[in-house]
Amino acid sequence: MQNERLRAVMASVGWTHAALASATGVDPKSVERWVNLGRTPRRATALRAAEALGEDVHALWPALRQARAARAVSPELVGLYDQRADLPVSVFVDLLAAARERIDVLVYAAVFLHEAYPRLNDLLRERAADGCAVRIAVGDADSENVQQRGREEQFGHGIESRCRLALMHYRPLADVPGIELRTHGTTLYNSLYRADDQVLVNAHVWGVNAYGAPVWHLRRQGTGGMFDTYADSFNAVWETAAPEKG
Questions:
Q1: What distance in Å separates the CA atoms of residue 244 and residue 24, rounded to the nearest whole number?
Q2: Quick one: which of 25, 12, 2, 1 has its CA closest to 54?
Q3: 53 contact partners, CB below 8 Å, separation of at least 6
Q4: Mean pLDDT over all residues of the chain?
Q5: Least crowded by CB within 10 Å, which of 120, 166, 188, 239?
Q6: What is the average pLDDT across 130-136?
Q7: CB count in 10 Å sphere of residue 11
């Protein structure tokens, strides 16, 4: 299929295949393939050709826009894991232990943390004592969204009981200076474990328990990125959550 846009632009400026080949450092046969066969050059070559012709590179080769989008990876992405079960609990613990300013935890239950690391409360007390602001939001076992999650995951009342268990684990922290504990009844699209400018995002998948769903590790690189999207999400849920007392 011919590249009619490229052919028309070359004709309008009086460029031959040889002229464009010379400007871009390729063989004239390559230009012929771009024009007559609709081939897409390498990005660097396409940029040189578009600059020489005074055209937008994506107007000449729309496929380059699609290819770039397909390859795009956020600079904030540190790691991607197939499922939460692939991560040792030490990854979560080390992340929280390294926090100096803020820890935010948004979950329904996530009792795996206390079960695998019984010193979690001590760690959070130590962080708070060093001036770290700690906010923990766990699921309200009586909320419709928590109960619906149990039905979707075919876990029955299990998720409700785990929310209550999580609250029991965290409740001794409710009156600790620097630590706030709340319960929420929102639809939980992602569990979040934030420490300063890093966050582990446990994405939730319909009908799949959290331990079987993917996790991505993000590190903030500036304003307006993926990290800020999740940080803003936490803040929005936090505003709707109910404070818990010890």
A1: 66
A2: 12
A3: 9, 10, 13, 15, 20, 60
A4: 89
A5: 239
A6: 98
A7: 10
